[in-house]
């Protein structure tokens, strides 16, 4: 859920408006960035957050109002710059590596310096998150994976170039506990996966991924069968194309009954490959959605509040 700050005007995640209270949490009329400025939320009206707090039985830190419009007509952040700040803040909120290395208070202070032009730079949507961070003097080391080629090759040979999650061919050395969180490059934290499983797992806890994957034994076997069958058919098709090209060269003609028969056979083979590839991709996408849903549900299960 996104809420608008009554001071700066930014529409950002509701976590920026939630504070711990004596008994229940409280929602503030302004965001945590503006609180870092030392602004007093009791001086600002924000009917949306006021009503939300009432519905959720939270306390509200702000000036009570009956008006649905924010009275502050001149927000701290100009309209043209808001989307850039909002996108940048959203990137930080979703980046665990950044949050580990740069505390939120430090991040908020950098935003304030940018807004006040103490730092002559406004985050841009057309550059990488890391570049924006660097321009705001927020240094992050995104290169936590320090494995060299020899280490990676040893892992690949250890597991015979097979993904340990699905059984397909694999060359991606995966960290069981995500290196972005654990910074653990020890051998007991390394395993081999295919690029697809590596992308799906991402920062998902290893135990959760294994639990979800354990329910897909039949699906994973089918994936291996698809991969092997497609590889064989594609090699057969490639050889058939080479044979056809060789016959065309030897005969010195393009149109010939026997050559046309070879082309028709190649077309059937190509259609079969396309059909099988389509079925394979459908199964892969269904499996990917299954993991994504399981990860989202696990995260929701750990969240006690809707804000």
TrEMBL record:
**Gene that this sequence comes from:** mcrA
- Coiled coil regions, renumbered to chain: 209-286
Q: Tell me the ranges covered by the HNH nuclease domain, including all copies.
A: 150-199
- What UniProt keywords are attached to this protein's entry? Coiled coil, Endonuclease, Hydrolase, Nuclease
Top-rank taxon of the source lineage equals: Bacteria
Q: Which organism is it from?
A: Lactobacillus rodentium
What is the protein's given name?
A: Restriction endonuclease
* Alphabetized InterPro entries for the sequence: HNH, HNH_nuc
Q: Which GO terms describe its molecular function?
A: endonuclease activity; nucleic acid binding; zinc ion binding
